[in-house]
Write a structure and sequence with these properties.
Layout lengths: L19 H12 L6 H10 L8 H11 L34 E10 L10 E5 L58 E5 L5 E7 L10 E13 L2 E14 L2 H8 L31 E3 L9 E9 L22
Parallel strand pairs: 1-8
Antiparallel strand pairs: 1-4, 2-3, 2-5, 5-6, 7-8
Length: 323
């Protein structure tokens, strides 16, 4: 199945993230989240607001760029059953989905040289607040067959190709059920290796902790036909702290999802290795997460490698049956 690869203009569905000054006034020390790396620098910028006009987003990027330490290779993780190579080049992937606004600030660097991967492509896809993926709405939340827009409830019946996990066993790929495209997108990295995506905080579905899928493509180029040539050098997943997920669970539309949520400790794919395993650094007002979240992560990859499907979950382990 193929989709047009033309740039799509940002839409106005996603609300604006709370400003740096307002975040400080509303949240105080709670709003200026104490995070390591990029998040800590952004918090420091908030606390030392001097009216220079430098945004929190700029602070996040500056902190990531300032690091000269080579990182451990980011863990490869399975692609899952819901990947579709639509190659929709766009920053805003929200379309008509509702939920807590999420600004993803992602960077790719060479794990051997620490240099940013310029003119490479970073791709993301994830479920909506009710746990449903575009392209697979007839499968629903975990295989329950819920139509799009309806909040899931109860425990869905898994499809026959794998237990739990929302359809698709280890290495299986589900057949798309529709042509919808929300919460999917790809972008070319800038000269510092960055891309940003406007999306919404994902929900959850049977068998998995809250997560976002990603691929990093290198060696190719963007053309009128999409991303041409090169290779997929990294396939991974991003994760969220339990505090943040619990905070969203109390707000609409997440509070209508009655499917039992899997925690990070219970997830069979998250490797438990923090940043290396895909744990996002998050910045948000802890009293008002509904106003928006900034999630950032630098991925250290081998640009000459080929990792189409990630190979498996935790290092040294066999691929999990859930995705």
């Amino acid at each position: 199945m193929s989709r047009p690869s033309l740039e799509e203009p940002d839409n106005a569905v996603v609300s604006q993230l709370v400003s740096r000054r307002r975040l400080l006034l509303l949240g105080g020390a709670a709003g200026a989240v104490a995070l390591s790396g990029a998040g800590a620098a952004a918090s420091a910028a908030d606390r030392n607001n001097t009216g220079t006009g430098t945004s929190t987003l700029d602070s996040v990027k500056a902190a990531a760029s300032a690091s000269s330490t080579c990182m451990s290779l980011t863990t490869e993780q399975i692609e899952g059953p819901y990947y579709i190579d639509y190659e929709l080049f766009r920053k805003n992937v929200v379309e008509d989905r509702t939920g807590v606004p999420l600004l993803l600030v992602l960077r790719a660097v060479d794990s051997a040289t620490c240099k940013p991967l310029r003119n490479s492509a970073i791709e993301i896809w994830h479920c909506d607040a009710s746990g449903v993926y575009s392209g697979y709405t007839e499968i629903g939340n975990g295989g329950g067959g819920m139509p799009p827009g309806q909040p899931p409830s109860g425990t869905p019946t898994p499809p026959p190709d794998g237990p739990g996990g929302g359809g698709g066993g280890g290495g299986g790929h589900a057949t798309p059920t529709d042509d919808l495209t929300w919460l999917r997108g790809i972008q070319m990295t800038d000269h510092q290796g960055f891309v940003t995506f406007r999306t919404v905080f994902p929900g959850w579905y049977t068998g998995r902790a809250v997560h976002i899928h990603t691929k990093v493509h290198t060696g190719g180029s963007r053309t009128s036909d999409g991303y041409t040539g090169g290779r997929t050098c990294h396939t991974g997943q991003f994760y969220f702290s339990e505090d943040a997920v619990e905070a969203t669970a109390d707000s609409a539309p997440y509070n209508t999802n009655n499917v039992t949520r899997v925690t990070l400790d219970q997830d069979s794919i998250y490797p438990g290795t923090g940043t290396r395993g895909g744990m996002l650094k998050l910045l948000y007002d802890k009293r008002h997460i509904e106003r928006g979240v900034i999630g950032s992560l630098t991925m250290a990859v081998d640009p000459s490698a080929t990792n189409e499907d990630g190979g498996g979950g935790a290092p040294g382990g066999a691929p999990s049956p859930t995705t």
